[in-house]
Amino acid sequence: GLVIDGRTLAYALEPTLEDKFLALAKRCRSVLCCRSTPLQKSMVVKLVRDKLKAVTLAIGDGANDVSMIQVADVGVGISGQEGMQAVMASDFAIPRFRHLEKLLLVHGHWCYSRLANMVLYFFYKNAMFVALLFWYQFYCGFSGSSMVDQWYLIFFNLLFSSLPQLITGVLDKDVPAEVLIAVPQLYKSGQ
């Protein structure tokens, strides 16, 4: 592990040393920045996001973490004694730090799975609609006439774009929550 304080971090984040700091941080399993300023926190997250092209997650519980949460790709705010500023700036809010495991492993996996299925479903829906229009052109002799009334098109998109995805979003859980917590490696399988 690497533990670095704010004073040392000020030197490590200089443009001439940031690549060496990042190379050292990559060799560690965990990096802890203590006694650092809000600007330093956001600079570390930005450095990792930009140089490593990684998806970053920032977790904070107070106003001093807001800039870090806003720079990260995904921000998690913990509501607590320091106020609600981090929660208001974050993408997700949890009441206690112990709920982070369930947020990441369970809801993160389910969200990833649902988004992947949604992309495939919309591709299939649009391919079928375009195929229908294509075959209709042979029927009408490429005259440019409209195949369906606008109301049918609105109802088609309403029924096939919103309802199935709403039902899938609420009910689709490919793996039970207990299994996802017991086997955290399943989070990577979706990716």
Automatic annotation (TrEMBL):
TM region(s), chain numbering: 119-139, 151-171
Membrane topology classification: Multi-pass membrane protein
GO biological process terms held by the UniProt record: phospholipid translocation
Transmembrane is among the record's keywords: yes
Keyword S-adenosyl-L-methionine: no
Residue ranges occupied by any P-type ATPase C-terminal domain in the UniProt entry: 87-191
InterPro entries: ATPase_P-typ_TM_dom_sf, HAD-like_sf, HAD_sf, P_typ_ATPase, P_typ_ATPase_c
Compartments where found: Membrane
NCBIfam families, alphabetized: ATPase_P-type
Listed name of the protein: AT10A ATPase
Record organism: Probosciger aterrimus
